[in-house]
Amino acid sequence: MQKTSRPQQRPQDTSLIRLFIGIAPDADTQHFLDGICREAGQRGLPKKVRWISHTNRHLTLAFLGETDPDHLETIEQSLAGIASGSPPLCGKIVSAHPFPRARAAMFAAELLPTPALTRLHRACQALMHAIGKAPERKTFRPHFTLARSRSGFSRPAPIPADFTCTLDNLTLYQSLLAPEGSQYRSLLTLPLCGAENSETDSQA
Question: What residues sit in the active site (predicted)?
């Protein structure tokens, strides 16, 4: 099911705002991730764990960082172009584990980096040049963060998964600092509505 654009109030503060581009999970994916969280909890976790709420769950495509609000119009126009030329994708969640390495402070559900998803990631990174920013160079490992712990996750062991999720939107998020951890506010959500590739590599 496609999401429609939701015009939302832009930040009024003229100071820099912390932005990133991601994909919001649909209801079926949220339900699956809830099950992973329950299983992880039954296997034993650190005493102090902060679970990520439904509204904060996302798959990051590009981190823009501290950004001048004057660039919002350029970013939104670029995202509209990317979304209109990109078809809805299918992603495969294959494991949930400490991320990005053992004993890390995050516990996440990781997806295979399919060619289509990687192209979408690169397109979102490329728009950073239009606002004078250099994209991150680290390897793209698509994932949904499920929990955080300052002491790190030595348990549970990786939880194998085989779930195909729908990735059908581009969302521009603002990261807001809060005592209970960063909160993510959606500034713009656009449906991926491009034509399907004849080679169907969106599922490759």
Answer: 58 (proton donor), 143 (proton acceptor)
Does residue 10 belong to any structural domain of this protein?
no
pTM: 0.88
Catalytic residue among 58, 71, 97, 121: 58
Write the pLDDT tens digit of every residue in 104-118.
Answer: 999 999 999 999 999
Residue-wise pLDDT tens digits, 172-181 = 999 998 887 8
Residue 1 lies in a domain: no
Alpha carbons 76 and 170: distance in angstroms, whole number? 10
* Distance between CA atoms of residues 54 and 30, nearest Å: 7
Q: How many domains does the chain have?
A: 1
The per-residue pLDDT for 47 is 82
- The range of the structural domain enclosing residue 137 comes to 22-194
**The domain spanning residue 42 has which CATH number?**
3.90.1140.10
Look at residue 6 and tell me if it is in a domain.
no
Pairing relationship of beta strands 169-176 and 183-191 according to DSSP bridges:
antiparallel
Domain contains 160: yes
For the question of residue 58 being annotated catalytic, the response is: yes
C-alpha closest to that of 67 among 11, 26, 110 = 11
- Give me the catalytic one of 71, 97, 121, 143: 143
Q: What confidence tens digit (pLDDT) does each residue in 28-82 have? A: 999 999 999 999 999 888 889 999 999 999 999 999 999 999 999 999 999 999 9
Burial (CB count within 10 angstroms: exposed 0-12, middle 13-18, buried 19+), residue 57: buried
